[in-house]
Structure prediction request, 472 residues.
Amino acid sequence: MVGMCDNVDVYQEILNPFNKEEYLFNGKWLRMQKRIEKIKVAGGEVKEIAIYRTVHGPVFSPFPFDPMTAVGDKVYSKKIAHWKIEALSSDGWLKMMTAKNTSEFAEGAALIMTSLHTSYADIHGNIGYWHTGLNPERPEGYDPRLPLPGTGQAEWTGRYLPNASVINPAKGFVTGWNNKASPDTRNPDGENPDYQFGRHHRALWLLRALSDAKNMDLKANQELMKYAGGAGTYYPQHNAYGILCKDFLPSMSRAVKAAGATDEPLLNKMLQVLAAWDGRSVMDVVKDDRFQAGHTIFLEWLPRALKATFEDEFAGIEDFKLVRSSLFNLFLRCIDGPISTLPVSRNYFDNTNTQDIETVDDIFLKTLLETAGILKEKFKNENPVSWQAPRSKIIFKHNMFGPVAEMWDNNVGTYIQIVELRPEGAVGYSRWPLGQSGQVSLGADNKPVFDAHFFDMLPHYKNYTYQKMGLD
Prediction:
């Protein structure tokens, strides 16, 4: 999996007010490198775009950058640790593929220039993990979440931080779901909104599922994939947050006690559904056509609660229809209050636009009442157990021909393999979204004709079944 270690930095470049092709670096005005990219546009003229580059990397904001018309006095460039040395990784790949033991595999992993999560197993029963890539050492005193000054005082030291690795961990397994390599891995926001400060990550589903596992044979791995697939949805976006639903129940229960006599019975029924909910969107990821009632309630309530909490601070910045992991984790920190390992700096529950001081109880009661009213109207009853919303679907769209296939929504990726390292060799099983061929031609009626193998893997992907790989 992509490792996403901290191997990219943004630099703020100060422009020369008299010549905006120049920028300040180490006390001197340096001229940017410039090249012209010619882009051939189908049915149109060739488009020329000027690309500017500083000592740190390409200027990406504003883009395209035109020194003649630029209004501001700053631009932003991007520095990448593996720029122009990616090909050196080939030595590492070769060494990893020919490794005869963990030591040789580790030597190969150390030669990989880009950031990856790399797992290991061998026929002797050893397992391991290596986080690869170049993680530059930065100077002290700068917040890694913010652009670095490009004037020369915040340059990388030329050294690299050690990457996380483990062989035969005491817990008996290695797992990940695009999470950090280790708790102390430096991995700020970067370019992926899922890598934020907080205690939630969808990898918790796998950690908890595997913590009591005794025999992860082929069947157990297949069942684990089904379990993870039901841990959330892609649309509406709800990235496996249900695993922490019970963390909200104490605050919800306290808030409901302040409800009026008319509203309290229905709210308590909703809490009972959430208390009994296992946190997943569906029980059977292959067959269910409706969400669990707990998922329906939580999915309706959570965006409302976050909007009511943060809209006064983040209006115009956050899209509260989509719950990003960063905001969800901030929400958890607000709930934890002073016991949070990373306490917040202010009372986000208080609406800065009003004179009153709102509390978490006020926010929870308000949004639970809104949720109850909307779902009661939608399902035409006051029985939250029956509030099972229709399950959403994934639509596979071809860039040229539009929708070509569909399946029930789930929360797992598209590169699915199960590989067993047995004494006699490797045995693998796979499932892919579509097929083994991407060939499409036009028929006599100018309609697309898909290759016979274009969709041949789709039944496996939809039904969580597997095709044996040619490894033996």
